[in-house]
Amino acid sequence: MYVKVTKSGPRKYVQLVEAYRDENGRPKQRTIATLGRLDKLGDELESVVEGLCRITGRSLPDKPAVSFESSRALGDVWALTQLWNALGFEQLRKAFRGTRHSIQIEALIRIMVMNRLTSPDSKLGVLRWLETVCIPGVGSIKKVDHQHLLRAMDALNTQRDAVNDKVTELLRPLIDQELSVVFYDMTTIRAEGLTEQDEELRQYGRSKDGGIRRQVMLGMVQTAEGLPLYHEVFEGNTAEVKTLQPTLKTIIERFPVKRIVVVADRGLLSVDNLDELKQMTLPNGQPVEFILAVPGRRYSDFEPILEPLQRTVFDSADAEVITETHWQEQRLIVAHDPVRAADETVARDARINAIEEEAQRLAEKLIRQDEGKTTRGRKLSDGGATARLYKEVSESSLAKIVRIDLKSELFSYDIDEKALKRARLMDGKLLLVTNVKDLSPTEVVKHYKSLADIERGFKALKSDIEIGPVYHRLPERIRAHAMICFIALVLHRVMRMRLKAAGSEHSPMRALEQLRRIQYHQATLGGSTVTGVSSMSREQLDIFKALSIEKPSVGPDNLIV
Q: How many helices (H) and strands (E) does the chain have?
């Protein structure tokens, strides 16, 4: 006899069937019993099975115990681990040889770097994040606590020179050895806390986002391809012009390039800087070349040069014009965009008109008050009118054009026509000072405009990697935090370069978000442990291919216990 499922209409029935042969020896079947509808069978069938076992003297096998562990994110940290190893960053452990630390410094640093790229959080937050991920290659770490992470940061700062040397060594194969166009810029990182430390880095200074804040300053050097080369942390009130020369010397010492063209933003141009740059040379005796943008505060120095160019070249231009002249024995490249110039002029005139209308309104109210006429609102004084207009002028960035006499007892203002003429002369222009001899004016402008890429690097540091605000108090911890974020940015940019080269439309963060959906699973079945990885979509497989790494596989060393 055997069990058979038969179908009658849309329903299925379970039957006990006997096979036999008829008188002629032909095989036949007959139904012994119908046990019921398949979709209705429940515990009652269990009692039938148990009864049959009792009659035959057999026993039912025990049901295996099954338990499931919480799934953990694998795909994103897998990809980052593969990139970490492909770039050789596992060699950082050599920088910590000979130290007294018994913990695995390189593995802990890798954990913190990956956290910045996947789910940036505080060091305590890293511990919570570790409970949700399966990081390949760190299963030998039995326990990670807050003190382990802080000790790893202390070791990273103590061995900072050795780590920088190793990072430099790992980045060298990725750099053009014939011509390295170096982009340098600085940004501010907000810092929290009111305590004061020895050699304090957190100082009050003008933030890039506006306002005066307690902060640290971060200077960074990148290649033309957007690959970070070096970073340095400065006190929050450090002048930008004082950071360029020492940083540039470090790059010259660390990277054996034959030629360096430094491209820097407007905040770094000064006569002192130019003199220092002209004195600097590479080890092979070649001078350091530079492309520096002229800051707006220095535009008045170039007015005698720009006025004839405006009359003879720029006034008749209907498209962008790039021309060249000289300033202080250096090449001066001037780019003029007539469309942008017109937009800037119109926008400024609109702000000036709004200021004049507000000034007229305030003046009329003062006159009506003097005549004894009733006016709306509170009574206005000359000093109050002056303060209101000064605020409007300051917020409109017109203080150099709209002059307000704050010392006068009567409300008055004046439009500085000379300053307005100078401002209109500068509209739509980009001024670059350079000593590079073999680049055309157009190529010089193109190199400078590539500086926007380092701004994207700072944006990634602040938004994706979330370098700030900094909650660490000790200077050494702040420097270690900056180093962790710098290494994270290196991985971010390498991902960006590989995705772009493969024609992928994914950004690094979007790619990691897609890969994060690949989960690691673990179950225990009857005393045996079974592990596996969730299925992968075509989009996820394409990301692995674009990054030139293998898809995930499960091994015994994947999970942090």
A: 17, 18
